[in-house]
Amino acid sequence: MGFGGWELLVILVIVLFIFGPRRLKNLGSDLGNAIKGFRRAVSDDEAEKKRKAEEPKPIDVAPSDSASSSKVGSNRKTHA
User: Fold this and answer.
1) Any domain includes 12
2) What is the pTM for the complete model shown?
């Protein structure tokens, strides 16, 4: 079920009657600014993801186990 030309015209006249021309203009500009802000946010997110993907990742170096094993042995208590 689609809207034809006459139906859209009737809806436009009713909206214009309810809101008035000045408020309708403000609603249109506010809607346009909201769409611009949304597009800007989406493109910023995409650019951030792309930048993070291109960034080199740091290499994790594991500490050697020889230093930790000597400390473990010195903390042992002997019971005699």
Assistant:
1) no
2) 0.44
